[in-house]
Amino acid sequence: MGRRARRTAISCACVLLLYFVCELVSVAGMRLADLRRGYRLEFGVPVLDEERMRELRALLASGDGARGMIVHDPDLGWRLRPGYSGGGQRTNAAGLVATREYDQRPAPGTARIAAFGDSFTQCVVPNEATWEQLLEESCRGIEVLNFGVSAYGPDQAYLRYAREGRKYHPGIVLIGYMTENLARLVNVFRPYADPMNAPLAKPRFTRAEGPLELVPNPLADRNALMELLSLNENPALRDRLGRHDNYYRRYYYRRPPRLVRYSPLARLAFSVFLVGDWKLRDLTMTNIHAADGRYNTGSEAYRLLEALLLQWTGEIARDGAVPVVLVFPQRSDIERWRGGEGMKQYEPLLEFLQGARIACIDLMDAFPPRETAEAFTADGHYSALGNRLVAARVGEALVRRGLVAGPCQGMGMP
Q1: Could you give the dihedral angle defined by the CA atoms of residues 123, 88, 374 and 115, in that order, rounded to the nearest 10 degrees?
Q2: pLDDT per 10-residue tile (average), the chain, 414 residues
Q3: In this structure, which of 158, 214, 289, 413 has its CB flanked by the most CB atoms within 10 Å?
């Protein structure tokens, strides 16, 4: 073999070695991205993993689900099972978190309060430790109905008020708003926003220039739920569920082209291109936060939130009740606020509510620094202590505004 041939052979060997090293590095890079869970660089993943499929089969096991607390609802997406008892919580025949039934009108001399929202309203503690129950026990002459449902968006909470809540003739309506809820206004199929979410869909609103327009729940009956069993192999169904969902990424669930399927390096390059497109779409569609970390008031989600609150509070007032928005901070909100940033991501919302003259109770300062850690559970919800702090601050604020007779006592108010 001549010198030139040997040199060519060595060059080819080096190129092949470099190629294989790049392939190995590409495999490691994609696995690392998977582990960090910022986003997955392996496209073609299933929408519903095995655990989500088991949840789906449990929902389909009987007419309205198996024996879990959450059951399918054709209009709202899901609701709490009526007559449920488990995990320390009980619901009544109407699906409220309660140990008793309520007449549609309050008893004479009783001020009825109804609370709507997500799991921060439903609470993840036993009935007797929820902030609603503690508030009822501490303030004389009131009763507090808990209409909270885990994972609800503000749109679902509003629709439940319209369908069920107003029939109970509350005098005060508490609109529970947890600071992450903004994102749910532009989500339809829950796993598109987070693959760990339950395999259920929700209604949402859209708005061009005029009034809000309702997009109904796309999984309105049992047949639609049954169809979800084929979702991982059914791109048309995925597209249909994602039509009004700002979190849907079509290419995320499709297998890469055949030409790049068998090379980690090619798959990595292909995936990086798609992730770039994904992030660009985030800037134009989801873009919930502005550069300073506050809500982006120009985003679709925020514009929907303002319009929804105006519509909801207007209906509450026309029904003869007083609307009050409760803002539930997450632990991260409290840490940012006290950690030197001095910023609340939801400050634009507070300014809007003040300008619109909508009563609001910001619960950020309900958590004393020395008790903040114990006020939250491991999964980020309010603990029994957190619920006591919330009940104390809500009761104090309602008395100060003259909405309930005071004083409210017995909760260890700070």
Answers
A1: 20
A2: 71 72 62 53 73 90 68 96 93 97 96 98 97 95 97 98 98 97 96 91 91 96 94 93 88 61 62 59 67 92 97 98 98 90 91 98 95 94 97 95 82 46
A3: 158
